[in-house]
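Run: sequence + calcium ion -> complex structure.
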Amino acid sequence: MPTSILIDTDPGIDDALALTLAAKLPALRVVAVTTVHGNTDVNRATRNARLVSSRARLSAPIIAGAAAPLVRDPQPARETHGAEGLGYVVPSLAGEHESDGAADAIIAQVRDGHRLTLCCLGPLTNLASAIAFAPDIADLLGPVFVMGGAIAVPGTQTATSEFNWWSDPEAADFVLHARLDLRLVPLDVTRRIAVPGSAIRALEKVGSSDKDARFWADALRFYADFHRAHEHFDGCIVNDALAIALAADPSLAEWEEMRLDVSLSDGERRGTVSKSVIGGRVTVAMRVRAGEVLSLIERTLFSQWLPEGAFASGADDADRWLASAAVRDTNT
Ligand code: BDR
Ligand code: CA
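>> structure
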């Protein structure tokens, strides 16, 4: 029996890959997709979720969500995900305003489903609002997989914080303390899920005569250009795809129980995660079989265009790159 899952997302290049992976994995049945501000504004994120879903033949309803964090201003990541949110892909439709129905949709789906699994791939604004409006859903929910935070590795947004939790730290804080079965998928593991630059270049070649391959080449190449310019890395890290892979098969990671807090300050520490005896209880993926995850993504999404093993060097490439980055002390 596939696991029923609701995906909350801000597409976003890696969100697009994650959504497509969820649509294709037989272990998952996507019941709804809610969108949120984050990598791009929510209108574009909703338009992108629709575009990606239709390409993946995913028929689940797509519901627009929060346009802004709980108390802060939205700050889209145009440098990382492009002006439209999908790298060099230029969608033919504009993103249009839709009213925010995500929290209501989450509440309805959770009350309707038996221990529904959630997978949150963007800032946690929608989930925090849903629980604030309907606290009873906290007890009804199944596992909640969340891509966010950085435990023992440097951040991406500041030296110590990761983008999703930096974007809406108040929502992350609320969710952390909501007594959910929270399964955190932080940068510590996602940064090993690297699509090698060589595979993106191969996809680009196929893309000259295949429009589906071109879609992915155009999306991933932008991400890779960003990584090369800012992090001297040849390839791109597809964080959100790991959260979906682990929702489908949690045994691909080793999980640790922790109590975590998130900083609500401004400046460098905003969104930074720290261990704390009074923090929220979380189950955290701290090690992952990255090669297997990359092979799963390659087989499921790219086998018609790329030779087997095209993603094989990704995990080692990422390990070498990570080894050269400073690892901060987490015991503070
Ligand atoms: C997270 O931030 C976004 O850039 C990605 O889509 C992912 O959800 C990684 O820090
Ligand atoms: Ca995302």
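>> summary
The first strand starts at residue 3 and ends at 9. The longest helix spans residues 211-231.
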